[in-house]
Amino acid sequence: MLKIDAARLYRAIEALGRIGAYVDEPTGLTGVNRLALTDADGEGRRQVLAWMRELGLDVTVDRIGNVYARRAGREDTLPPVVIGSHIDSVPTAGRFDGCLGVLGGLEIVRTLHESNIRTRRPIVVAFFTDEEGSRFGTDMLGSAVATGRLPLESAYALRDRQGLAVRDELERIGFLGPAPVETIQRMPPHAYLECHIEQGPILRARERDIGVVTGVQAISWQALTITGKSAHAGTTPMHLRADAGVAAAKVNLRLREMIASGRYGEPMRATMGAIVPHPGMVNIVPGRALATVDLRNPSEEDMRRAEADLISYYTQVEREEKVRIEWRRTARTEPVPFDPKIQDRIAAAADALGLGHERIISGAGHDAQELARLCPTAMVFVPGEHDGISHNPREYSTPEQCASGVNVMLQIALDLAEE
Ligand code: GLV
Ligand code: MN
Ligand code: MN
Q1: Cβ(203)–Cβ(299) below 8 Å
Q2: Which atom of ligand 1 is the closest one to the Cα of 97?
Q3: Can you point out the beta strands (E) in 55-122?
Q4: Which residue among 169, 199, 290, 301 is buried most deeply as judged by most CB within 10 Å?
Q5: CATH number of the domain enclosing 229
Q6: pTM (2 decimals)?
Q7: Ligand 1, from 333, 366, 370, 390: best to mutate by most atoms within 8 Å of Cβ?
Q8: Range of the domain at 315
């Protein structure tokens, strides 16, 4: 059975991980910060493009900065098999999230080159802009635009906390490409494949090498602006306060109560990841607070109920705390099931390679959920050490774990590219 070079794949992961590397202050660990469309992301992109060109691939950059690198097929006009993911990161990342899928795709191409295999269909290795959504507030940005869920103009207009816009930042780092974003819709891929770290504890705890991903759960993000009245902390009687910080805290605790109630199903997750009080001084009652809400649920029905209940709780907090709560939806995706036939093939390929596997739903969002709109789509997960921690410098999968996932992908990609 054809196999990739595990050490070579790992060297590429390490090399890309050096771009945007930083030392995490509290732990002393080295992490990665390649937020979308920053200088570090630009440098990471240029490195991956250089590797794509070294492999002789035909590279296209589209108007939202998505990059497609194409290896010709024997019947080159057929729809390609696309292998992809992202190389942008959260500000406190490890080296694997997204990068495994992209560099795994390039390692598959290298392996095919070395073995002189020319597949019937072309194979495209892609990376999509701003999968993380950390900087501009909307996740899967590039793949959502490419597949028609988000209009290009609304993506361009998104701004980061400094007020910098997506379009300007794309241009600044040299990735406002010439290709129309809907190129991939005009000739939908034959299939889309993505290998990713699990980012959770399940596979490692059950000693499985491979997760056959059944789909991605629903994701709902909000940005809250809570407006109260800033006032002197020492002199303002408690009953005269309109404390935006307390209101944010109440909403945050409500998320915990909602989970504990069990009303929205056991797999429901809820997080207030940002709470920013203004002016943020020890002796001033916060007059304003910005906060975010992240809800996840594999059931669309439970998700809708959770959203409605949370929004009606805002009205209660407004009354109790004498504040105004404005909320804005910054991202919303429904649950996305993956192609059952490719799932079966992944399981069979894992068996053939002697790898233990099980079906698993993805807790995290992925570009694959957007591509699933266009073509049969599937994902392969590999386990992570340290309880599968991710979005954290401790994120770690071994060279063997990474290689197992990419070897499964190689078999599936070869099969699909011969169809
Ligand atoms: C992407 O990493 C997400 O699930 O937030
Ligand atoms: Mn990812
Ligand atoms: Mn991520």
Answers
A1: no
A2: 2
A3: 58-61, 67-71, 81-85
A4: 169
A5: 3.30.70.360
A6: 0.95
A7: 366
A8: 218-333
